[in-house]
Amino acid sequence: MTPLCRGGLKPVNNLKLFRIADGQATEVLGTAVALERHLQTQIEQNMETMLGIRFLASEYVTGPRHRGRIDSLGLDENGNPVILEYKRSNGKAVITQALSYLAWLRDHPHEFESLVMKQLGDEVSGSVDWSNPRLVCIAGDFTVHDVNAVEEIGRRIDLVSYRDFGGGLLALQLVASMAGSSTPHRIQAAAVNASSALPVGGSSTVKSVRQIYENAPESLRGLYADLDAILIGHGDVQKEFQLHYIAYRKIKNVATVRFQPRSHTLVVRLTVDPDTVELCKGFTRDVREIGCLGTGDLEVRIRSQEDLARAGDLVRRSIGEN
């Protein structure tokens, strides 16, 4: 996946905030927080709202072999394990630190699932997706060298910069996002009891969304290509293949897409409040109280170019509201 920022960059946190008074704009200067722990606490207390990640643990001790404390552990909206590390200013060391804890995660999948069970319940712990664990590195600034490094590493890593504007205003900016590659077999095999479990041979008994797409009729794949172009036409939207669906996200998911080849349907879930939409049977529905794959409260079923045109405003709302 192409990082969000390229080229001759210096520190890449260029977010600006202005206060408008009597028609005149004055820039509000953002700073780093005074204490790293304060940043960590703010994000841990609001992790799901800010990052779409359910908080599991803080300062998690990795034991004598790995010799460290993971700043935060979480589970993202796609069911992927997440390691979060923070630095109040420069992010140079935070990437290496996060990568070192990936080894702990590789060696302790059952310990992680036990933590999920304790915090979120049996059902959630049984649906942890070990195919591509995620690292989130949060710091005041990242450089182009940091961005280039995560591209070469080949792991699933988000670089998120922040600015503290005072008065309770904290801004987060996704600087770079790499999709990584499937997790090495040793992690998958160790997590064999998860719902996404793999048999000893290492191949999933569940058909993945990628497999479904590859075997779908050409006409449905063409319809999806047009939807995909709308979604990734916004430069800050990234695409990731999960096991059951394709996720489109900024810092959090803005849409998920599944394929139903038999009915020639794209099942799209959007982060749009269903109460603000005039629901149409067979096209849109409120899925807040319905257990189904994907994220987002509004489901849209797209079967034709006409449906895609009708869904366009909803898709743009979902992207714009996140």
Q: What can you tell me about this protein's structure?
A:
The protein is α+β, with helices and mostly antiparallel strands and 322 residues long. The chain has two domains: 17-190, Trna Endonuclease, Chain: A, domain 1 (3-Layer(aba) Sandwich); 209-320. Helices cover 31% and strands 30% of the residues. It has helices at residues 36-45, 47-51, 92-107, 109-120, 122-125, 144-153, 185-190, 209-214, 218-232, 305-320, and strands at residues 17-21, 24-28, 53-61, 69-76, 81-90, 134-141, 157-166, 169-178, 238-241, 246-249, 253-260, 265-270, 284-286, 298-302. The chain has a six-stranded mixed β-sheet, with helices on both faces. Strands 9-10-11-12-14-13 form a six-stranded antiparallel β-sheet. Helix 9 (218-232) runs parallel beside helix 10 (305-320). The protein is globular and about 55 Å long. The two termini are 20 Å apart.
